[in-house]
Design brief:
Largest sheet: 6 strands, mixed
Helix content: 25-40%
Shape: elongated
Strand order of the largest sheet: 1-14-2-3-4-5
Number of strands: 14
Radius of gyration: 23 Å
Strand content: 15-25%
CATH topology of the largest domain: Purple Acid Phosphatase, chain A, domain 2
CATH architecture of the largest domain: 4-Layer Sandwich
Number of helices: 7
CATH superfamily of the largest domain: Metallo-dependent phosphatases
Number of domains: 2
Structural class: alpha/beta
Order of helices and strands: HHEEHEHEHEEEHEHEEEEEE
């Protein structure tokens, strides 16, 4: 979960602060309740007690919001990139980190939302399901998306580390990029999708060695951590996920945890390193196993990337 000590320290301090606030909140609430039972009237709170009481109530509302509202509040983000390497415009829709559970969340909405966006291509940048039962929901979703546009996909760390690996993409109408590159032709233009799973030890330069240097290259990789390797190999657009935008973020601070070795340097959204654009999608689902199924200030996201010719 933690790829650097700074994130570990921030999360420990955050949990400690929240624990203290709720301990004091329940202490104040219990004291007020016992006073009411004993004297049949409400006690007068000090300014300190009122502050604790308000913070505790606010915390409860935030928890309810994080569980019941934000995980279902889909956000569509648009970016436009121009390049002299293509002549016509085309649209890519990126989805990532679906983390399907047995309970259907956004999977039922996504096909209609994405269909209205009219993509030429759909890319999935890893982490399909949290469980074998959740995998059924993921596969049903991908079958519906395959009717909308061609899908190109890579495996994330959850697609590698869990026992139901072989069935992730088996039988689905999608092109898995497994240390490979695929040439795409559209409207008399051409470009390349290339990618690799998180388990790969292959160097990017070996994956793209047969691609002409002047061709537009889109690299799919679950982690954002290969940005400097991508930049050194003249990748034009690098699409990643993994960070979930923190999944829990704070106003004015952002993600508490990114899971990236670069921490908050590449948290979510669009970045540019030399001539390489990096876009980190915040994902659609939530971390599996014992992690709480909650999002806060990190809404689930679909990314629409419009590539246009620049003259």
């Amino acid at each position: 979960m933690f790829n650097n000590n700074h994130e570990r320290i921030v999360v420990i301090n955050f949990i400690l602060l929240i624990s203290i606030i709720f301990f004091l909140y329940f202490k104040v609430s219990l004291t007020a309740l016992l006073y009411l039972i004993k004297y049949k009237r409400c006690m007068t709170f000090s300014k300190y007690a009122k502050l604790i009481f308000y913070l505790g109530n606010l915390g409860i509302l935030c928890i309810l919001y994080g569980y019941f509202i934000e995980p279902y509040w889909l956000e569509v983000k648009y970016i436009v990139l121009e390049t002299p390497k293509i002549n016509h415009a085309f649209r890519i829709v990126q989805i990532s980190d679906i983390h399907s559970d047995p309970q259907v969340r956004l999977e039922s909405q996504l096909p209609n939302v994405i269909k209205r966006l009219k993509p030429n291509f759909i890319v999935f940048t890893g982490d399909s399901a949290n469980s074998q039962t959740g995998l059924i929901n993921f596969r049903n979703l991908m079958r519906k998306l395959a009717d909308i546009a061609p899908i190109y996909a890579v495996r994330g760390n959850w697609d590698i580390s869990t026992s139901h690996i072989p069935y992730r993409f088996k039988g689905l109408r999608l092109s898995e990029l497994n240390n490979s590159a695929i040439r795409i032709k559209i409207n008399n233009d051409h470009f390349w999708f290339c990618g690799k799973p998180t388990s790969s030890k292959h160097m990017l330069k070996n994956i793209i060695k047969n691609i002409p240097s002047n061709d537009y290259k889109i690299f799919l990789y679950h982690y954002p951590d290969a940005i400097y390797e991508a930049s050194a190999n003249n990748i034009d657009l690098y699409l990643a996920g993994h960070t979930h935008g923190g999944q829990v973020a704070l106003p004015f601070y952002g993600a508490l945890i990114t899971g990236s070795k670069y921490g908050k340097k590449f948290e979510s959204g669009l970045y540019k390193v030399d001539n390489t654009y990096l876009y980190i999608n915040k994902g659609l689902g939530m971390e599996g196993e014992s992690a709480p199924r909650v999002r806060f200030f990190a809404r689930p996201e679909i990314t629409v990337i419009d590539l246009k010719g620049k003259f």
